[in-house]
Design goal:
- This protein has 14 helices and 19 strands.
- By secondary structure, it is α+β, with helices and mostly antiparallel strands.
- Among the domains are: 84 residues, Uridine Diphospho-n-acetylenolpyruvylglucosamine Reductase, domain 2; 204 residues, Vanillyl-alcohol Oxidase, Chain A, domain 3, CATH 3.40.462.20.
- Strands 12, 13, 14, 15, 16, 17, 18 and 19 form an 8-stranded antiparallel beta sheet that branches. A 5-stranded antiparallel beta sheet has the order 5-6-10-8-9.
- It starts with a helix and ends in a 15-residue tail after the last helix.
- Bound molecules: flavin-adenine dinucleotide (FAD).
- Flavin-adenine dinucleotide binds next to strand 3, helix 5 and strand 10.
Length: 446
């Protein structure tokens, strides 16, 4: 341990932050989960990342890698181990203006990316929040406001530079180490630390963005009509439905259909969104032309002590009506979850299931429940949550790693179908045989 530390102090040019240091409190936890690591290492370049990986592996301490720090299970921190905080690796450069190739540091956030690309009228379909990290979101999927037109964030990835468990710097792309490239597109942080990503960005205009709101009493008809319409809606339209929001009246909360239409032509946007407006009694409609970078919201840092339970599953075409019926009839009580339904499909489904380690390509919708509150409230809400998911279970399958707050074996099995898991484990054996990168939905090398 002491020699590993000596080597670190010699080779590492970034920040080493330890308990008692002025900055420690600000960097010890991740955004949603507190932590008390022995060392927070903030590398300033790739060589620092190599030194940090060498230290973690030589010291035998648990390693957490932090991109934007938003993981629900708190993968970006630990107690007593090493955290490699990538926030200083946040450059965003347009490296090929013709092909729109953008090189992004492994610790950048999507807000930094959107702001840097806006002057070039470019965008990458990412997520809905500025402070979420490019690393965590991309390596497990990335379901954002242009998902139906351009697919997942990882579908726009063309290459990544990684530091692997043995300290090597490798490129993963269709041409170089293609199996590793397959694995990092869905395999989360299992394979190494991505120090840089290269994406093919897409030209963007301002977009029509906002929400159309209906009374809770019309939930069943609105949701059924919405899901049916999405099958024929133009792929420029991406949409999220939310209901039973406990902060807006629980069971009585209005049904909100959030829409993003990728384009600035009012007529085309109306043609795409009007069928949604006709689904019921519109009690609110704030859809307006918005700069794409402003569509992403700031991620608020929650007050200490708040706990989060995020669960999700995918819904294939056939069981959609049944699932919507269950959700619309759900009763709510204090601590009930926010329920959101994300439309996927479109470009996501045009990629073969085995083309990337993200395998849930054929789903039409994703159901997400998010329960938040102090521990007693969350504990009291668990039986209701289990009952809801028990009702949904026969009609849904799989899970999206990025919207899970737990990482138990059954979660990993839901994220990775058996074939995907086996193939990922083979790549893991090659690049991380000792399972140094275990702070994630872990794929075991053995
Ligand atoms: C407010 C909020 C809004 C969200 N909105 C969306 C959304 O719209 N769409 C969506 O798809 N998801 C969304 N998510 C989920 C989000 O994608 C995950 O929480 C994701 O893990 C966050 O990535 P991060 O880098 O910020 O997190 P971190 O906690 O830093 O990292 C998460 C995991 O990724 C690994 N990792 C991160 N960066 C790297 C890297 N460079 N190299 C190797 N491993 C790395 C970490 O080790 C860890 O295992 C949201 C989450 C929150 C809290």
């Amino acid at each position: 341990m002491s020699s590993a530390l000596e080597t670190l102090r010699r080779d590492f040019g970034g920040d080493i932050i330890e308990p008692g240091d002025v900055e420690y409190e600000a960097v010890s936890g991740s955004k949603l989960v507190p932590g008390s690591p022995a060392y927070v290492l903030r590398p300033g370049n790739v060589d620092d990342v190599r030194a940090a990986v060498g230290f973690a592996s030589g010291s035998g301490l648990a390693l957490s890698v932090r991109g934007g720090g938003h993981s629900f299970p708190g993968f970006g921190t630990n107690d007593g181990g090493v955290v490699v905080d990538l926030s200083r690796l946040a450059d965003v450069d347009l490296v090929d203006g013709e092909r729109h190739i953008v090189r992004i540091g492994g610790g950048a956030t999507w807000g930094q990316v959107a702001a840097a690309l806006a002057p070039h009228r470019l965008a990458i379909s990412s997520g809905d929040t500025k402070s979420v990290g490019v690393g965590g979101l991309t390596l497990s999927g990335g379901i954002g406001w242009k998902v139906r037109k351009y697919g997942l964030a990882l579908d726009s990835l063309v290459a990544a530079e990684l530091v692997t468990a043995d300290g090597a710097v490798v490129t993963a792309s269709a041409e170089e180490n293609p199996e590793l490239f397959w694995a990092i597109r869905g395999g989360g942080g299992n394979l190494g630390i991505a120090t840089a990503f290269e994406f093919a960005a897409h030209p963007t205009t301002d977009v029509f963005f906002g929400k159309v709101t209906f009374p809770a009493s019309e939930a069943v008809e609105v949701l059924q009509g919405w899901a049916k319409y999405l099958r024929t809606a133009p792929e420029e339209l991406t949409s999220i439905a939310s209901l039973a929001n406990p902060f807006a009246g629980g069971h009585e909360a209005p049904v909100e259909i959030h829409v993003a239409f990728d384009g600035d032509d009012q007529q085309l946007a109306d043609a795409a969104i009007d069928p949604i407006r006709r689904l019921g009694t519109v009690v609110g409609d704030d859809v307006a032309l918005t700069a794409y970078a402003d569509v992403l919201v700031e991620g608020a840092t929650p007050p200490p002590g708040l706990q989060f339970v995020a669960r999700n599953a995918f819904v294939d075409r056939e069981p959609v009506p049944e699932v919507l019926q269950i959700l619309a009839e759900v009763g709510t009580s204090p601590g009930s979850p926010v329920i959101a339904l994300r439309s996927v499909g479109g470009a996501v489904s045009r990629v073969a299931d085995d083309a990337t380690a993200y395998a849930h390509r054929q789903a039409e919708l994703m159901v997400v429940t998010l329960t938040a509150g102090p521990k007693p409230v969350v504990d009291a809400a668990r039986p209701g949550l289990d009952a809801l998911w028990g009702k949904l279970a026969p009609h849904v399958d799989g899970a999206y790693a990025n919207f899970l707050a737990s990482a138990a074996e059954e979660d990993v099995a839901a994220v990775y179908p058996a074939d995907t898991y086996r193939r990922l484990a083979a790549v893991k054996r090659q690049y991380d045989p000792g399972n140094l990168f275990a702070g994630n939905h872990n794929v075991r090398p053995e």
